[in-house]
């Protein structure tokens, strides 16, 4: 027979999968000899069986009876007895804490008979009837699904009729009347009388907790926190102890350190003559633990001793719920406390200094996501804010500025010293200059992996996407907001919060965080400008853990950088090189016309002239990049995008040509361009003529780019520099493609090397972005000096997804249906795309042991993905400059959390 019920004395803290977090910790406190009311836990197995079958397992009732009778025998009382009744609470408790998401029912066992027994045993009739009305209210709302407003309205009406304000000011007669009114509400709304059988109350409450696992709010919370939907919840049945038995009783919550700031010391709230929900509801002003010390020194002393014991045992900040019943302390719950990002770093280093944990362990107590939160500016929460709308928070931070509708406006106003927010229906690669110039980006369409979101995160720009309430008219340069009358223009200032998705009208003050000052300008300057002690300790804690992460990590961290500014930012944040320099970004803006000339060339002479015009531009870019990255490796990806990104939109150009022809003012150049655009048009350009295919079919393109790299390297060598380019061929599917590209690249390197007298034997490798390249990696490696996994495209091609399309169409549904845990464009799909990465690593090193492997997709900066890349044996990850510190920290965490991977 499966075991569904465990007494608190049977479990321990390592059984969270079975007993849930609350049950496991109650068992652990019992094992430690702390004052825990007797009780038992119904396992997550029972919940899963209930959710699967729609009924409680037959064995559960028998096991609950056995455990309940053991509790009754231990205490000498029976559940719901007419004299001195035993009462219990029924609380949810999943493996992962989900505060407020599921259900609790207190005072199970009270009925019309036992309420008098409780009054007599306690000597306090008011307390007994108050406990009974609380049970009916909680039971009605939680178990019988009655709208809580019915009970709240009855309570408010009763207080008004008695001329009192607070619940505890109602006398016993008023509470008796309220109980009858509550029972009438149950009868009217649920169609049944309030259950008088104590065991029936217990069984119904247990089922209600099971059902609460699948409430909408629980689903939403689990999606947000990435908690699996199939875990189920445990149910904890615990003897009631009462904080509402007069002035020597009370209830509270305490923390062994401040969970908000991380300050060491004792923090908590206490309420005299109250039950637990009173603290949470905030209906009364709480007292501090210092007040408890003066009210009840003995209980305070016992609580402090328990807090110290638990923190020493768990070796972490602990969150403790307690009740004092007539001067006797009882502990109802403990858990490793949730904390802010700032508190996480401070507490971790405090525990190291107190020699409770090692520095390696301290790394496991903080996360890259927490560091990310500390890096972004934040809005002040003081003062009035005019909320326009709330949409999808795509890239954290806070930004304020004038509305800018296009690149030209954003760039011009930024150069004039104004802060602007680029507001678009959606963005595309042509919007890059405006995004660079803007303080933040707001789009009416798109999701977390839309262009705006991905690029903004890469640049560390605040971004809010999918603001459907906005009607953006770029031509008229106006924005309308659904439900509001005003028409916003370029003269209006807005503020966007990339952490919450909120958009405000008007200015809200923002500033660099202390941690960002540290990462940008160093420890000494950050400490000098930190201000208070809290910020100074936070900066010092972040510095200590970052330095330790750098010490222990195996993964190197590079940056994706296409210009010297990005490269400098990356170096300041600790990047050890550039893992992806996208050369196509060097051809955007005003330079696009030179690429168009190359595409339009119809003769060898025209093509050579176009190439000759591009060469000095590209060479100049590389000279600057090599100077910035002096002595550090820089992986240069040859041009990758399909031709359509350098050509006008087919529809727009067709309309222009047709209108101009009708007016008799057609420019022959436009007509010729339209013919080329039509010829180049592809149904699915991301899987068409791009990457290696474009390089091999457009004469002179490889030679142009490699010559620009080679000549720029020679110029830097002559100036005493140390350029270290690595040439990367994108979208390889066949070893023969790479072989041809390599031969052409090596010919140019040899030619420039012979002319200059320098050895230009630069590494030549390829991106692994196609499943075929991963499957045949042992062959591809014959022609490659290194592999770099482009996980953005590898995800698209492994899943058969178009990233630009799926986010808004069905990714959300797939997450709801548990097909995805999270979007595969945010975190690596370990089983599918991850398998392709492992296959590529293993295949490449089977041909060339020790072959260098890197990752240059957006996943290279994702905290969850970095742990996988460490285990897969890659040598480095490359991410946006802004995410370099996060990658450094997560690489250190991966080194201490997972074994060293096998590496040939």
Outline the structure in words.
The structure is a single chain. With 904 residues, the protein is α/β, with parallel strands linked by helices. Helix 16 links the parallel strand 13 (398-404) and strand 14 (420-424). Helix content is 48%, strand content 16%. The model has no long low-confidence stretch (mean pLDDT 90). The relative contact order is 0.07. It starts with a strand and ends in a 7-residue tail after the last helix. The strands form five sheets. It has an eight-stranded mixed sheet. An eight-stranded parallel barrel has the order 22-23-24-25-26-27-28-29, surrounded by five helices. It is built from 36 helices and 29 strands. The longest helix is centred in the C-terminal third of the chain and has 25 residues, at 604-628. The chain is elongated and about 105 Å long.
Strand content: 15-25%
Oligomeric assembly: single chain
Radius of gyration: 33 Å
Span between termini: 49 Å
Give the strand order, joined by hyphens, for the main sheet.
11-21-20-13-14-15-16-12
What is the β-strand count? 29
Secondary structural class: alpha/beta
Binned, the helix content reads 40-55%
> What sort of overall outline do the alpha carbons produce when their principal axes are compared?
elongated
Q: List the total number of helices.
A: 36
Mean pLDDT across the residues is 90
Reported for the largest beta sheet, the result is: 8 strands, mixed
pLDDT under 50 segments (min length 5)? none
Concise overview:
By secondary structure, the protein is of the alpha/beta class.
